[in-house]
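Ticket opened by: R.M.
Priority: normal
Category: complex prediction / small molecule

The reporter submitted a protein together with magnesium ion and asked that the result be attached to this ticket for the collaborator who will pick it up next week. Submitted input follows.
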Amino acid sequence: QYQGLAGRSTNEVLQLYSAHSQQQKLQRSSVVIQMYGAIKKRLKRDLKSLHSFALELSKDFQRQSKTYLYQVLTAVQGIQLQNEAMQMFQIKAFDLEQSLQELTERYEKEKQKRRALHNSLVELRGNIRVHCRIRPLLPFDTAAGHLVSPDRQRNFSEVACAADDETVLVKCSRPGHASVNKTFQFERVYSASESQDTVFADVAPLLTSLLDGYNVCIMAYGQTGSGKTYTMLGPQPEENLMFAIEDESELGIIPRATQEVFRLISEKPPGSYWVEVSVVEVYNNEVFDLLAKDSCGKVFGVKRDVVTSREGKSDVPLLTHETVENASEFLRLVNKGLQLRVTHPTLVHAHSSRSHLVVTLTITTAVSEDNFGTPWEDEQTSQRLHKEASCTFPQKMRESKSTSSSRASSPAQLEATEKMKQVKTRLQLVDLAGSECVGMSGVTGAALRETSFINRSLSALADVLGAIAEQRSHVPYRNSKLTHLLQDSIGGDAKLLLMLCISPDQKYLTESMQSLGFGTRARQVQRGQVKKKNFPVLSKAK
Ligand code: ADP
Ligand code: MG
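Result attached by the on-call engineer:
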């Protein structure tokens, strides 16, 4: 072809060349068209399958979203149901809470009613009411107290506790024996965590009784260190017995009772009540007047006697009775007396728990002849009270400053009141010596004397209670100065509250059991009905 072309003209060549290119173009475009067709076909097919895939996918998506929507709806419905149920529960819980509260209130009311009924029963039977206070475990209970955590101490050594507010539970265990739980019932049991406030709340009604005409005696019994002084006075600085006035919440029964007595008096007509105080210590079977003053007016412990009056009552002749007008005057006075216990040569003893302390508040009120002897009082009591009531006021009251507003001390008033009878009621507050039976072996001299006197006086107390319980004709009050001094409160017509104090520690188990036994026996004593003295109708008492 190229040889043939060589002979031809350029034009022809050019023509041929363009014809050839066209031919080639034609050929190429037909191929392209063919390819295009194929691609188109393929594309169409792919598009179709893609379309159907997309269709399937969207159907699938719709299906799934429907399922999810359904699930969400069910969940929402479930939540709503749960919410409703929750609300129902809340309402139910609220209702239950309310009924529980109502029940608790009713229970508390019933309990109070029951306690009041029980108290009346105790009164009717002339029983001695016994409360028991268990003090907390203290660092000195364990030799290595400061090294042992409070929890471990509890596990290790706490054997006495309050099972409820009327039951003491004691775990008695002896080496080689299975431990035995013993329970003791009392009118009220205070656990270690109960405050001075709580203890006093149960004592306060007795003070209302005091102003209503009953004699009252509150006596703390227990071994040394069991909390008698803490309960009666409050926490004491080491070997310096006195009221720590700084912390009011820690004050014990004696200062609180005085405050309460003056509060109750402030609600009565002015000048209708007088309060006198005496402070006595019984040490080695001797009675010391802690408020007696020497010729220079300095307080000076003086030995006194206890005698039985013609009416068969116990009396301490020449005992100092100081008139007080308010609680702080009382505290100052009693503190001064208590100080004597550590400074006076005949009164010095190593520990305050070696003596019995008796603080007495005498409340005197004037009763007009007309008011004397109300119909409910029986003939015998009325006669007795007439005999008891003296026609003149004590010297102290005559001497009292005429500025005093709470006393009928102006001459005119005195003259008017002297025509009246007066009735006295007495509040005796007693912090007994430690009740532990210390062995005599190895003890000599003063300590031996102390111990034997304490043992004797406390066993005399137990004997007296035993004699009254058995209704023996002779009650041996005079076997000890303590029982002779407290004769009228123990066997007479006083409302008597025995406050048992218990150390919870294992090592005091024997002493605790002894105290609990003493309390249990005291509780069973029946003394004939507690008598009310004839009080005037002049009070605006509520
Ligand atoms: P007691 O007069 O029976 O010998 P105390 O009243 O002196 O005993 O008490 C011994 C110690 O125990 C004191 O340090 C006292 O403060 C403390 N104590 C007693 N009872 C309690 C109590 N309920 N709470 C706290 N401390 C107490
Ligand atoms: Mg004491």
